[in-house]
Design goal:
Elements (H helix, E strand, L loop, with lengths): L15 E2 L1 E4 L3 H12 L4 E4 L12 E4 L2 E3 L11 H6 L9 E3 L2 E5 L5 E5 L2 H11 L1 H21 L15 H15 L3 H12 L2 H6 L5 H7 L1 H4 L11 H9 L2 E2 L2 E2 L3 E3 L4 H13 L3 E3 L4 E7 L2 E7 L4 E4 L2 E3 L3 H7 L8 H9 L6 E8 L18 E3 L4 H12 L8 E5 L14 E8 L13 H18 L7 E7 L1 H8 L35 E3 L13 H16 L15
Parallel strand pairs: 1-15, 2-3, 2-16, 3-12, 7-18, 16-22
Antiparallel strand pairs: 4-5, 6-11, 7-8, 9-10, 13-14, 14-15, 17-20, 17-21, 19-20
Length: about 550
């Protein structure tokens, strides 16, 4: 089933495109849209028969639309939404107001979009934590304000003496020193802390800490007690919905609505999409990329190639090793992309009844969690480390159809269950089997049943996705949803490889625009936009010419 109604028109084999973008995920479509709007003749090739990468909406049970990979909206940059006019192409975002973590003793802790409502809820469990919540929120927003301006900037090369790199390093230094010595020291400390240690400095209630720790482990091969997880929390807080920083929402019609709007914007700018066009090899001649070769042997010529695939799939899977410097390949092999996540997508014939929630609670419309202590979360991670799926998993569970009823027939619902931890390979290096996948799914369903008796009787259909399915279908190496871990050694000018953080590959006119590049993963779009800016900047400077190109990439 196709995710967009866009038609695909293969060009003649003799045609040479200005750019071919590999992969119709959100970053590939963002980069392609900016390039097409700047006058380039752009082709996007996608291996699947649908577009969207990990941002897809698919009907896998009659009448029920699944967001079967990414499932919530916040990180996407509002600048890109404006530049590409995505609301005019059908994108609508519906914020959700609340969520809850269920406690083993039968209680719950709620979380609300409204700060004061959350503060009152915390006071119900710990007056001290209610007082600390103001301080916590202030500190997190201060860290967000520091990071957000860096998302849409190309990282400098600290080893370069080029004027632009030295100027950008000076900008970073000024930006950092503007914090003041005390806040700067706290910022560095925060980046290297575990989320467990960080939250211990504010809160005492375990359920409150476990809820707030969620964003620090999503998609991360680390536990809450691992150093560096505090920054991962910040990465998830940098988005906004309707101007509310850190807020989250649903894309109406599922997450495929994001890439459907991007595809519509791209096609309106004159671009072309080809589905069912898996790339076997990026073609290089005399040190310069000149197109791609599809798996069926067809060659597509282009003046530049932009890969939205992850860095390992690009350079280890789609390039001749003789075309790439050996030291670069070694660094790519060492790039950490360990998968840690699984997903269940469930069609239901009614709304589950969670015994802890009072009737009519708005919390059921948001994110629901069943892990009420950091210790339980860490033990789930311990099982991942030895190659087992977590027997008591962490879940980020949502029922989007309570907010967006367009995704299911009346009386039916779609439930999304994002699960940590789920290893890319099992104990002893064993590959996943169908029986393993089913046993993993059963562990997740059993946990929900514990908190919502009778839940299993409402299940109409279940799609179970382990890192194996994420790699095979979406192309994510080891099922890593961020195309590479967000650890401190893989951020900014180290992402993906030191010396290659400016979206350029080690081959002329070979570019990277996926989440393996700065600023990282999530449905953000910044890597795609930043890569397009670098390509167009080079064209303007004369390193590559196109007489039809509009002046100075007007939408960037």
């Amino acid at each position: 089933m196709k995710d967009t109604a866009a038609s695909t028109v293969p060009g003649p084999s003799s045609r040479t495109w200005d750019a071919v973008v590999v992969g119709a995920g959100h970053n590939g479509l963002v980069a392609a849209s900016y390039l097409a709007r700047s006058g380039l003749d752009v082709l996007v090739v996608e291996k699947n028969e649908w577009i969207g990468g990990a941002a897809v909406s698919r009907e896998l049970h009659p009448g029920v639309t699944y967001s079967n990979c990414s499932y919530v909206f916040s990180l996407f940059r509002p600048e890109i939404m404006r530049d590409l006019d995505l609301p005019a192409h059908g994108l609508q975002v519906l914020p959700y107001e609340s969520g809850a973590v269920f406690k083993r003793d039968g209680g719950y802790v709620a979380m609300y979009r409204d700060h004061e409502a959350t503060r009152r809820e915390f006071a119900r469990h710990s007056p001290r934590d209610a007082e600390s919540y103001d301080r916590y929120s202030r500190d997190i927003m201060r860290y967000c304000r520091f990071i957000r301006p860096l998302l849409m900037r190309t990282p400098p090369d600290p080893a370069s003496f080029k004027l632009r790199d030295m100027s950008e390093m000076a900008y970073l230094a000024r930006h950092f020193l503007a914090l003041g010595s005390e806040d700067a020291a706290e910022m560095v400390r925060f980046w290297t802390m575990s989320i467990s240690d960080f939250l211990d400095e504010y809160f005492e209630n375990e359920a409150i800490k476990s809820y707030l720790a969620v964003s620090s482990i999503i998609g991360t091969a680390l536990g809450p007690m691992s150093p560096g997880t505090a920054y991962v929390l910040l990465h998830h807080y940098m988005g906004d919905v309707d101007g509310n920083i850190g807020a989250w929402g649903y894309a109406r019609g599922g997450m495929g609505a994001v890439t459907k709007a991007l595809a519509s914007s791209f096609l309106a700018a004159g671009g072309t999409i080809r589905e069912n066009a898996p790339v076997a090899r990026i073609k290089v001649r005399e040190g310069r990329a000149e197109g791609v070769v599809l798996e069926d042997g067809e060659e597509i010529r282009a003046r530049r190639v932009i890969s939205s695939m992850d860095v390992k799939r690009t350079f280890l899977g789609c390039m001749d090793p003789s075309d790439v410097p050996a030291p670069f390949l070694e660094k790519v092999r060492n790039f950490k992309s360990r998968g840690s996540s699984g997903k269940l997508n469930i069609a239901l014939d009614g709304v589950p009844e969670f015994t802890a929630l009072p009737e009519g609670s708005p919390c059921i419309q948001g994110d629901l969690h069943f892990t009420d202590t950091l210790e339980r979360m860490e033990r789930a991670y311990d099982e991942w480390k030895i190659g087992r799926w977590s027997s008591d998993p962490f879940q980020d569970t949502m029922i989007p159809t309570l907010t967006d009823p367009t995704m299911a027939p009346p009386g039916q619902h779609f439930m999304s269950c994002f699960v940590q931890y789920c290893p890319p390979r099992l104990e002893g290096g064993r590959e996943w089997t169908e029986n393993d996948r089913d046993a993993f799914g059963k562990a997740v369903l059993d946990q929900i049943e514990d908190y919502a008796p009778g839940f299993k009787n409402r299940v109409l259909h279940v799609e179970v996705r382990t890192p194996r399915e994420l790699e095979a279908e979406v192309g994510l190496t080891d099922g890593n949803i961020f195309q590479g871990e967000l650890t401190f050694d893989q951020l900014l000018f180290n992402r993906p490889v030191p010396g290659y953080a400016q979206y350029r590959g080690p081959v002329d006119e070979l570019w990277m625009c996926g989440s393996s590049t700065h600023p990282g993963g999530g449905v953000m779009g910044a890597p795609g936009r930043n890569a397009a800016a670098e390509i167009l900047r080079g064209m303007k400077a004369g390193t590559t010419k196109k007489t039809e190109m509009r002046d100075a990439y007007p939408v960037i």
